[in-house]
Write a structure and sequence with these properties.
By secondary structure, the chain is of the alpha+beta class. It is built from six helices and eight strands, in the order ββαααβββαβαββα. A hairpin with a 5-residue loop joins strand 3 and strand 4. The mean pLDDT is 97.
């Protein structure tokens, strides 16, 4: 499957390749990055490879997924952003994760806005949600910046999440 490439003023969102494995493993080994994701703890290189395979494979199975986020000027790996809906999820989610050394520069917001635009343009969905750890204030801030509003709290896969939501109608009013 050909994964679309999206470019913003500073970023390129592109598909995954095996060449991303080391940078992705470094990201997943970072305790600050991992704090609010999955089990809340860093994962090793082998587990990171399996997560990369899941993210890349989601595109094949569903026709949408997470992109690699890279700096257009330097091609540095900044993180991942995208849209996915794994089995057991409460809806189609837009999610983001930027490496801590790049936090505070607006990359998560910029990439998430590009993913949202793509999602509402190419997917047959009336809303996108974000599942956010209740203590992750930075991610909640990104959700609000991209136009999402708090919807409710819910347990998903055994973990408590705050659910933020953006409807297509809300998005189109912007």
């Amino acid at each position: 499957m050909e994964i679309p490439i999206i470019e913003t003023s500073r970023l390129r969102l592109r598909g995954w390749s095996l060449a991303d494995a080391d940078a992705f493993a470094k990201l997943n080994a970072n305790s600050d990055f991992a704090k609010y994701i999955g089990g809340g703890k860093p994962i090793n290189k082998a587990e990171s490879w399996r997560v990369l395979a899941i993210l890349a494979g989601h595109w094949v199975l569903k026709g949408f997924g997470y992109w690699v986020v890279e700096d257009k000027k330097t091609s540095d790996f900044l993180g991942r952003v995208g849209i996915w809906e794994p089995e057991g999820w409460p809806g189609i989610e837009v999610g983001w994760g930027i490496a801590p050394e790049y936090w505070g520069k607006g990359y998560a917001t910029e990439a998430a806005l590009a993913a949202i635009e793509w999602g509402f343009t190419y997917l047959d969905t009336s809303e996108l949600i974000s599942l956010i750890h209740p203590d992750n204030e930075a991610s909640k801030s990104v959700a609000l910046k991209v136009g999402e509003v708090y919807s409710h709290s819910q347990t998903v896969m055994g973990k408590q999440c705050d659910i933020f939501k953006l409807t297509k109608a809300q998005y189109l009013k912007k």
